[in-house]
Amino acid sequence: MSDIALLPIAEMANRFRDGSLTPTEVVAAQLARIENAEAKLGAFEIVLAERATAAAEAATTALRAGHRIGPFHGVPFALKDLVDVEGLVTTGGTNARADAIASTTATIARRLIAGGGILIGKTKTVEVAYGAWGTNTQRGTPWNPWDPKTKRTPGGSSSGSGVAVASGLAGCAVGTDTGGSVRIPAAWCGIVGLKVTEGALPLDGIVPLSHTLDTPGPMARTVEDATLMFLTLLGRHPVEIDRERDDRHGLFGSLDQGVAGLTLGVMAEAERSLMDASVLADYDAALDRLRALGARVVPFELPITAEDMRNGVGTIISTEGYFHHGNLYETPSNAMDNDVKPRILAGRDVSARDYIAVRQKMAENRNRMLDQMVGIAAYLTPTVATPPIPIEDADQRTTPAGLTRAINYLGFCAASVPMGLAGANLPTSLQVAARGGDEATALRIAAAFEKDRGPFPAPPMAAM
User: Fold this and answer.
1) Average pLDDT of 95-117?
2) Same domain, yes or no, for 152 and 175?
3) Residues 188, 275: one domain?
4) Which residue has the higher pLDDT, 420 or 424?
5) Would you place residue 1 in the very low, low, confident or very high pLDDT band (cuts 50, 70, 90)?
6) Active site residue 157
């Protein structure tokens, strides 16, 4: 197996353009990894080997003939199996949808394909995307590639996407984030995830969990990769993406600006006490790096407690999740995930009065947060309070999404980027949250940290 399977997609794009590498070679390398490792990793619902091989050959022929679409042309990607592709099943992570063949293709998938991307497969998800540990008792839980011996939490709900990208089974992948479902698997699998602003990307053709909070987003190996994928998901013309990337303008220009002169808000002392010691050590080291790069780092008091934000998001998700999927869980003949079922059914008992009160309070607190953020470019926390833990230790009555749910509650966007490796060679992650609509700042800070940190290793199971 060749290391080309683990190349960042931005480097693939460069090498496709200069002819030193072809999509055929990359797709073949990634399919070889899938054949060798998928039986244990379990990242995919379906692998589209023949389809991807044919698309790679067509892309290689087009590139050699000078018919390059743009920087995403020939890049292999995976879709979380909530995203419709015409003619393929969209399980949504549940056996109840095992025969749900899509009649259309979701807009975000069409944009990636129109940009020249090659769909290599659809990845596992927590049932109806409701769970941050990454487990699925009905359709299988992917194996976190950082520990070959102990099965650890891959993060959810975009578990398969995180495992596939980290292991070199796909160049990048789409996840969805309602309370952390892009950032948590990115964090625990040692890759980059971008939670985009609500409404930035269309939701048509995506199995919903919470129509208020759902956001699809990129999962990739580097911040530049996530930026390239984000612009493609936005539907930007490939020629424009190429131009901005070559000239370092727009979002790509933001990646080069550094953090000198920025004021960054960081966790107050009370929140720090909830962190695992290894995560806190990596977090403090990350803040030291940013200070050395010229940022001003100041403690930031949130206008509402993390617990209130976590519970507010939980109420919205369970209420809207029950609206969308309650019939599946109320039907006795359906074999549903018993870890997810109580989360969904909790929404049945939320009154309209209580639901509206939570939504109204969230809107008020979003405005309070913006007022309090004056002069502060971003709010930085660890993405998750612990490294990935053994699956058997995951308490399904709780969630590891406390730090991420706060960002969904506040209407912010956020990038998660690997910080370091904890004592057992397990990844930790930095969350960079910026105001809604300001992905440029989140990506800018994440890129500055990533550049100073240096290359991040692939997980041990990526060598299988």
Assistant:
1) 98
2) yes
3) no
4) 420
5) very low
6) yes
| Residue partners of 313: CB distance under 8 A and separation at least 6 | 178, 179, 213, 405, 408, 409
Distance CA(234)–CA(323), nearest Å, equals: 28
List residues bridging with 175 in a β-sheet: 217
**CA-based R_g, the chain, Å:** 21
Which of 122, 124, 157, 161 is the catalytic position?
157
Q: Which of 159, 181, 210, 429 is catalytic?
A: 181
Cis peptide before 157 (omega within 30 of 0): yes
H/E run at residue 112: helix 107-114
269 and 247 in one domain? no
Task: Quote the CA–CA distance of 103 and 114 in Å, as a whole number.
Answer: 18
273 part of the active site: no
E strand or H helix that includes residue 172:
strand 172-177
Chain centroid, CA 320 distance in Å: 21
The number of domains in the chain is 2
Q: Which residues pair with 432 in a beta bridge?
A: 380, 415
Domain hosting residue 351, numbered range: 259-463
Q: Clarify whether residues 282 and 202 are in a common domain.
A: no
Q: What would the pLDDT profile of 44-94 be if each residue is shown by its tens digit? A: 999 999 999 999 999 999 999 999 999 999 999 999 999 999 999 999 999
Residue 80 annotated in active site = yes
